[in-house]
């Protein structure tokens, strides 16, 4: 089967596939640290996941950091985690609409959102309509991400409604996450082909097992360290003329050493460039300071610095 993928609407980096870094890679480090690391490692931009850190919700702060580190904001990830229950109200529709407004304000063309949880009954029943209307009202693509089934004590739990798979939904734009495909027991290349022109956004990572094989946690391994056909999928995207964004979403939370964290981010972007056929970054990385990688700043330190700058 041959599928031709269309370029993403409003792609602000031209026909080159942009390679970005999600702020979730280094959560809970501060937002400025995200932009600094992305530039140091040689990424083309940043995806900001909205969390309970007010800096992830502030367009002025994000715009200033984007300019300071020459890192365009490629996408906003809507607040969908349990820790963001009270961010922008408890209404998931409001969370999605505010995320799209933030993206439009910052010039990001994509918002990533998860399918609704089953217990969000009203939102779940109207999810497809809400996604479509939000995209039209803001001019931002709402790319629904593929999730995975849950199991509790060996029994399947229908956590998402109507489905964890955006292919089961009437969605115009989709995000493919390799780790989630792995947990679902799916082949990512086949998922990408099935999504076709609706595939707008990639979360670059890897996975080594599925729920049915006893895997419990969502791994988000570095690409190439799992069993998903990540390299083959990236090559397919290039061959198909796709021009969306490929955003690293790897789990580095257990990495305590800052130089090791930077090395892993460099390994990830190098993997992407190799298999996307890119020789150079759109923006050259900043020189690493003498003595190695930069000092880690917490989200609290970032907020203090932002307040000082405003004062």
How would you characterize this protein structure?
The chain has 311 residues and is α/β, with parallel strands linked by helices. The chain has a single domain, classed as Divalent-metal-dependent TIM barrel enzymes (TIM Barrel), CATH 3.20.20. It has 10 helices and 10 strands. An 8-stranded parallel barrel has the order 1-2-3-4-5-8-9-10, surrounded by 6 helices. Strands 6-7 form a two-stranded antiparallel ribbon. Strand 6 and strand 7 form a beta hairpin. Helix 1 crosses helix 9 and helix 3 packs parallel to helix 5. The radius of gyration is 18 Å and the shape is globular.
Key traits:
about 300 residues; alpha/beta; TIM Barrel; 8-stranded parallel beta barrel; two-stranded antiparallel sheet; globular; disordered N terminus
């Amino acid at each position: 089967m041959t599928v031709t993928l269309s370029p993403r609407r409003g792609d602000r980096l031209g026909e080159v596939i942009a390679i970005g870094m999600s702020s979730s890679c280094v959560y809970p480090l501060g937002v400025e640290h995200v932009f600094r690391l992305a530039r140091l490692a040689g990424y083309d931009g940043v995806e900001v996941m909205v969390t309970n850190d007010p800096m992830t919700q502030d367009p002025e702060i994000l715009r200033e950091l984007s300019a300071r580190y020459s890192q365009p904001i490629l996408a906003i990830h809507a607040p969908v985690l349990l820790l963001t229950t009270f961010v922008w109200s408890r209404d998931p529709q409001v969370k999605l609409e505010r995320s799209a407004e933030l993206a439009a304000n910052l010039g990001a063309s994509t918002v990533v959102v998860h399918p609704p949880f089953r217990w969000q009954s009203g939102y779940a029943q109207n999810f497809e309509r809400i996604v479509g209307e939000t995209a039209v009202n803001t001019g931002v693509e709402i790319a629904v991400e593929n999730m995975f089934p849950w199991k509790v004590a060996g029994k399947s739990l229908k956590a998402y409604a109507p489905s964890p798979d955006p292919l089961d939904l009437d969605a115009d734009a989709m995000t493919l996450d390799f780790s989630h495909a792995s947990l679902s027991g799916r082949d990512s290349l086949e998922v990408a082909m099935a999504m076709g022109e609706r595939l707008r956004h990639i979360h670059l990572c890897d996975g080594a097992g599925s729920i049915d094989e006893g895997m419990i946690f969502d791994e988000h391994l570095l690409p190439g360290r799992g069993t998903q056909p990540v390299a083959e999928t990236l090559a397919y995207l290039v061959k198909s003329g796709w021009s969306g964004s490929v955003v690293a979403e790897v789990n580095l939370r257990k990495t305590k050493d800052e130089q090791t964290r930077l090395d892993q981010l460099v390994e990830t972007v190098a993997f992407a460039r190799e298999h996307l056929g890119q020789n150079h970054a759109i923006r050259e990385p900043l020189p690493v300071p003498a003595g190695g990688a930069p000092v880690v700043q917490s989200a609290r330190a970032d907020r203090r610095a932002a307040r000082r700058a405003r004062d």
